[in-house]
Design a protein that fits this description.
Blueprint: H1 3-50, H2 57-78, H3 94-125, H4 138-163, H5 165-182, H6 192-206, H7 210-219, H8 230-241, H9 248-261, H10 264-276, H11 282-295, H12 301-318, H13 323-334, H14 344-353, H15 357-382, H16 395-420, H17 426-443, H18 449-482, H19 485-493, H20 500-514, H21 520-537, H22 542-555, H23 564-573, H24 577-583, H25 585-615
Helix pairs in contact: 1-2, 1-4, 1-17, 1-18, 2-4, 2-18, 3-4, 3-5, 3-7, 3-8, 4-5, 6-7, 6-18, 7-18, 8-18, 9-17, 9-18, 10-11, 10-16, 11-12, 11-13, 11-15, 12-13, 12-23, 13-23, 13-24, 14-21, 15-22, 15-25, 16-17, 18-21, 19-21, 20-21, 20-22, 20-25, 21-22, 22-25
Length: about 625
């Protein structure tokens, strides 16, 4: 066997190992998610049928969720939800792009090593057992140590197969060097959060996955006298995701995937077409109404964007819409899923600020209606040269379409009503949403076992990526608190005065700038705890301010350089992201106008509310 054949054999073996690792982790994630659902659902049934729950269910559910995030970390860093910013790197010459890729992977390796070594260190030091289950406490940290080690392996295999083994070795060596640097102490005193932000920012610009860039940034504050050594970083990370409320995220993702796989989402599209298909730009308006209806089941803008790119966009292009405009419409309407309840963004906000989820959901309905109207206006005036209005549907046709869509519409109603009126907790409602979606699809014979398994695998990977981001943001948030950044933020947003209008204006400007460079979830986790106290001090309603904050940041799903919704749609449709960013500008303008209207109304609310109450 010659050298070329030997090299080809090694590459084939590496590809086989990488594919096997992904399949194995995907299957394990699906199993953990299924076990998590069964535990929570068993507790829900026992509570409502027999008047009492299992004392061990909450603790076991949290442990399973932690295991899901840890084992999904390798998929999160190498998959489509790695949260890598490559818009800047794409502008570089080929040689500089290769150098940037090596440096980006080095930062990712560093973050993974922090997870692995920090988890191992805590596991060897911690003692005791969990309160209810009696499981050894070191097990939680050992799971994340294993997840970090597997992430290093997954990163190396991916880098070697894509860029060559020499490049992968260089990235690993640089990552080890950064890790070694983080263990030194120079007795330098600097603002730890600033150091972490600079490192994470550089990593993000180079194209490193955001969660691991945040971990690397927190780690490299060690030489500058930070209060977060490696074990503390992992402990803070686990504490950040070890909340029962966050279990709702994988369940809402799974419910949306089941509806999509079971064809119920397409029934929503048919019903939407009977309502607005005869309007000018009827198919684009249908995409908007379908997104509004699907929001009640999914809660994930990324999931809706992926679905729309596969289902709605090809039909739009076939009707004469330019591909970039079709992609822009799908991306634009998808942002509603994280505004109209149930919303994963509101769950993240509630976990970061302890605001009432039920009250946030009510505010989401109001904001979602305003944004949907703004998008409808933007679509009406931006679509040119396309005649796609369908004949107006009869009352009978609308009735039949409504009957077909009721199973999907009913899910959103059950979830939101149950949460708002306190019938069920958020996590219980999300588990019931999964059960509802599965039973509805199986009863209609539109979903088989293979579809359920695929939905479990996809939802588990997405949930792990989101959970990892939430956890990685926790050490960064701790550094912000230690450095008293909240006081500086308060000074910034009150520069024009401490009244509600001035604070709302400057807070929106801060969010608009920060959203250009931060992932939506990370921005909520880092900025909401800083801005909310200032808003309350200015007399703003905290729920209303939280809604404006989420709306503001969700708009950045459509703005460069991050624009996650644009990248999801353009990647699936194979349309250049730059063309989609240009095409989405009219919709972006109407959304910003809607944000201004919402902000003005909510800033005026503290003064108007007493007068309105006196009238009625």
């Amino acid at each position: 066997m010659n050298a070329a054949e030997q090299q080809g054999g090694r590459a084939q073996a590496a590809a086989w190992l990488e594919a096997g690792l992904r399949r194995g982790l995907g299957a394990l994630g699906a199993t953990l998610l299924l076990a998590l659902f069964l535990v929570v659902m068993a507790a829900v049934l026992r509570r409502y049928l027999f008047g009492g729950g299992f004392i061990w269910s909450d603790e076991l559910a949290i442990w399973l969720h932690l295991a899901l995030i840890a084992t999904g970390a390798p998929l999160a860093v190498t998959g489509t939800l790695a949260m890598r910013l490559d818009a800047v790197v794409r502008l570089l010459p080929e040689r500089l792009r290769r150098i940037a890729a090596v440096l980006a992977e080095a930062i990712a390796f560093h973050g993974a090593l922090v997870l692995a070594a920090g988890g191992f260190s805590v596991a060897t030091l911690v003692g005791g057992h969990s309160t209810v289950l009696g499981l050894p406490e070191w097990l939680r940290f050992a799971i994340f140590a294993c997840g970090g080690g597997l992430t290093v392996l997954a990163l190396f295999l991916r880098a070697g197969l894509e860029r060559g083994w020499l490049s992968a070795a260089a990235s690993l060596a640089l990552g080890l060097g950064l890790y070694g640097l983080a263990q030194l102490s120079f007795d330098l005193f600097a603002t730890s959060s600033l150091i972490a932000a600079l490192v994470a920012g550089v990593g993000l610009l180079l194209g490193a996955p955001l969660p691991f860039a945040l971990l690397a940034g927190a780690s490299l504050t060690g030489p500058f006298g930070a209060l977060l050594p490696e074990p503390a970083i992992v402990q803070t990370l686990i504490g950040g995701v070890g909340k029962f409320l966050l279990l709702a995220i994988p369940f809402f993702l799974l419910a949306g995937e089941l509806l999509t796989a079971g064809g119920l989402a397409e029934r929503l599209i048919r019903f939407a077409a009977t309502l607005v298909g005869h309007w000018r730009a009827g198919l684009a308006q249908t995409a908007l109404v379908a997104s509004v209806l699907f929001s009640g089941a999914s809660g994930s803008s990324v999931a809706n964007a992926a679905f729309g790119a596969k289902v709605m966009a090809p039909t739009l292009v076939a009707r004469g819409y330019p591909p970039a405009n079709a992609a822009a419409i799908v991306a634009g309407v998808s942002m509603l899923d994280n505004i109209i309840p149930p919303s994963i963004a509101f769950l993240i906000l509630a976990s970061a600020t302890n605001l009432s989820v039920g009250s946030l959901l009510v505010g989401g309905f109001v904001a979602g209606g305003v944004l949907a109207l703004a998008l409808a206006i933007g679509i009406h005036f931006s679509v040119r040269g396309v005649v796609d209005a369908a004949p107006k549907a009869s009352a009978a046709e609308r009735g039949r379409a409504l009957i077909g869509a009721i199973p999907a519409i009913g899910l959103g109603i059950v979830v939101v009503v149950g949460i708002r009126f306190g019938l069920v907790t958020v996590t219980e409602a999300s588990a019931l949403a999964v059960a509802y979606a599965a039973v509805a699809c199986l009863a209609l014979r539109s979903l088989n076992a293979r579809g359920v398994l695929t939905a479990l695998r996809k939802s588990a990977a997405e949930a792990a990526a989101i959970g990892l981001l939430i956890g990685a943001s926790a050490p960064f948030a701790f550094l912000l608190a230690v450095d008293r950044v909240s006081e500086q933020m308060a000074g910034l947003v009150t520069a024009l005065g401490a009244g509600p209008y001035a604070v709302m204006l400057l807070a929106n400007l801060v969010l608009l700038v920060a959203g250009l460079f931060l992932d939506i979830g990370a921005a909520i986790l880092l900025l909401a705890p800083l801005l909310l106290p200032v808003a309350i001090a200015a007399g703003l309603d905290p729920i209303q301010f939280g809604v404006v904050l989420v709306v503001n940041l969700m708009i950045h799903g459509l703005t460069p350089p991050l624009g996650i919704l644009v990248y999801v749609v353009s990647g699936i449709m194979r349309v250049p992201a730059g063309a989609v960013f240009r095409a989405v500008l009219p919709l972006l303008a109407t959304l910003l106008a809607a944000l201004a209207a919402l902000s003005l109304g909510m800033a005026a609310w503290p003064a108007l509310a007493p007068r309105l109450a006196a009238l009625f």
